[in-house]
Amino acid sequence: MSSHTNMWFYISLVFLFTYNVMGSEPIDTTLGFVSQPLNQSNFDIQKPYNLPVDQRYNFFGEVHKLWVFETDKPHSRKSKTNPRTEIRIRGYDYSSGVWQFEAYGYVPSDTSGVCIMQIFGSKPPKASTTMLTVYNSSLYYYRNQVILSDLYNKWFRLNVIHDVEDNNVKVYIDGILKHEGRVRVGPHIHHYFKCGVYSQKEGSFYMESRWKDIRVFRLHD
User: Fold this and answer.
1) Which UniProt keywords apply (predicted)?
2) Structural domain span for residue 134
């Protein structure tokens, strides 16, 4: 076998390995996980402190719609964070094990500079283990890696798996692995899932996201 042929054989193997690792085919990410019971009481709506919930959130036809303006107040009088309207999932805070968030998300056009999902809890001074942000029609892991392009005006299924002991997070879009990486978290940190809109740098004036079929899973012991 010539050196040229060997080179192409090697390149093909590398491509095949990369193709498979990054998730060429959709998979069922919930295999081996146990679905946790959820109802509306588990959804704590964090919104500008000076407004009633129904001015920044509604739930109609199984869809949670959350929106916020760049000029809105933070979620509490003492907070110095940016405006947000988020669902904070209660009842399933965790500091060990393997947990998974699943939901269908939708982001309308012109929403940009916003976090739409996060795993809260991290070693200070950071507050979150994972943030998924939207900038100019693309979904990013923080602002470092594009998870999904051409995001606007269509539903997508999001699965985020957090292995606490392994300090690992995986992000899937429509069953396809889009990101896997280690996270730096100190011991005994409590985590929980959030989704909605949380204004970031260079945020648009109006920000909105919609969510349905929100589920939380834990890996079976």
Assistant:
1) Signal
2) 26-219
Three-state SS for 191-203 is EEEEEEEEECCCC
Q: Which residues pair with 171 in a beta bridge?
A: 160, 179
Per-residue model confidence (pLDDT) at position 6: 43
**Dihedral sign of CA atoms 171, 173, 177, 179 in order:** negative
Largest CA distance in the chain: 73
Q: Which stretches of the chain score pLDDT less than 50?
A: 1, 3-21
CB 49 within 8 A of CB 73: yes
Residue 151 lies in a domain: yes
Check which CATH number belongs to the domain holding 35 and give it: 2.60.120.200
Single pTM value for the model: 0.87
- In a domain, residue 21? The reply is no
- How many domains does the chain fold into? 1
